[in-house]
Write a structure and sequence with these properties.
Structural class: mainly alpha
InterPro entries: Flp_Fap
Number of strands: 0
Radius of gyration: 25 Å
Number of domains: 1
Order of helices and strands: HH
Number of helices: 2
Keywords: Membrane, Transmembrane, Transmembrane helix
Distance between the termini: 84 Å
Pfam families: Flp_Fap
Protein name: Flp family type IVb pilin
Length: 58
């Protein structure tokens, strides 16, 4: 049992997969935050254009 625990404690093959998973999650969160900001700006721009077009008709 003691050798098994030493083997499990020194095995680092799973650590790399976890690190890649954490990096992928961080990139996904950053992308979501960036796209939300772009979406808000795009919504504001379309609202301004729509308002100017409405005012031009009247």
């Amino acid at each position: 049992m003691k050798n098994f625990l030493k083997t499990v404690a020194s095995d680092e093959s799973g650590a790399t997969a976890i690190e890649y998973g954490l990096i992928a999650a961080l990139i996904a969160v950053a992308a979501i935050v960036a796209m939300q900001g772009v979406g808000n700006e795009l919504n504001t721009t379309f609202n301004k254009v729509s308002e100017q077009l409405s005012n031009a008709n009247t």
